[in-house]
Amino acid sequence: MGYIGETIDSIKSIQIRQLLTQAISLGMIVTSALIIWKALMCVTGSESPVVVVLSGSMEPGFKRGDILFLHMSKDPIRAGEIVVFNVDGRDIPIVHRVIKVHERENTGEVDVLTKGDNNYGDDRLLYAEGQQWLHRHHIMGRAVGFLPYVGWVTIIMTEKPIIKYILIGALGLLVITSKD
Amino acid sequence: MHSFGYRANALLTFAVTILAFMCAICHSLITSILNINWFQKQPHGNDEVSLTLNITADLQSLFTWNTKQVFAFVAPEYKTSKNSLNQVSLWDAIIPEKEHAKFWIQISNKYRFIDQGHNLRGKDFNLTLHWHVMPKTGKMFADKIVMSGYRLPDAYR
């Protein structure tokens, strides 16, 4: 009983002003992260400026858990570029290399065929039914650089969401209880 | 302000920043030679060609401490009335180490050389060897060497 009384006293003694300051600090951290993300989207011209590699189809160059930095410019798509694309009807984007390009004279539209470096055959099996080629609107960006291993954090948090909640909970607790 | 922890943190941040900068500026020069000989052709709805490629290359100077692998591929480029540019990769290889970067190989095309149409008879094309350097960390870069003056036969065989 005495312990509960002490806890209630200590909660009452937290000043409102201090609590508000800490809430605002937390809000600032979250907002800054969002601003950086949106700015990256603007600068790289891509909806998804950073992606995590999920499969081994581009090994040994890219392994599962690597992070890729994307950039999308209006430059034409050429063979050899590593592109990230979405197939109609699938959520998860695929990161493979362009092996064939046929660009139309009049419209500038382009037929593109891709293949994972580590795969035996090209990506026609991955495309939508009846689709032989990718077009520009399927392509979200070109991979221009990468960081190894850092993407494992995202993979773990997606596959075991409990870890995400634990992390956020711990972070929130840390901010609230710090005596700054 | 002058604690060990604070100083260790400052030193670590500085070291990581320098390392990141060094990864970003890595760069090098190459020399390579390529020549090809070719062979036969089968019509197939769209035109299709089968070639034997003879590739000699020395990409050793591309390898630095920050190079994970070099991806090399050979693609002819040609123009048709419908398409301003066609690039068709015929062969590629992953070169994981400097020791494997100097090589000579004679093989038929790994990927099928198929046109969109019937435009390949007597077609002039250039053959391009591309290389794509993938670092252990940082920016990837690519370059190529173009060998022009190739021409496909005027009739199917």
* Rg of chain A computed from alpha carbons, rounded to a whole number of angstroms: 23 Å
> Please, what is the average pLDDT of chain A?
84
Any idea what the CATH superfamily of the largest domain in chain A is called?
Umud Fragment, subunit A
Main structural class of chain B: mainly beta
Strand proportion of chain A, as a percent range, falls in 15-25%
Share of helix of chain B, binned:
10-25%
Major sheet of chain A: size, sense and barrel closure?
Answer: 6 strands, antiparallel
In CATH terms, what is the fold-level topology of the largest domain in chain A? Umud Fragment, subunit A
Give the H and E element order of chain A.
HHEEEEEEHH
Please state the overall shape of chain B, judged from the principal axes of the Cα atoms. elongated
Biggest interface reads: A-B, 26 and 30 residues
Strand order of the largest sheet of chain A: 1-2-6-3-4-5
Strand fraction of chain B equals over 45%
What's the CATH class of the largest domain in chain A, please? Mainly Beta
- Major β-sheet profile of chain B: 5 strands, antiparallel
Question: In sequence order, what are the helices and strands of chain B, one letter per element?
Answer: HEEEEEEEEEEE
Low-confidence stretches of chain B: 24-36
Give the domain tally of chain A.
Answer: 2
Structural class of chain A: alpha+beta
Percent in helix of chain A? 25-40%
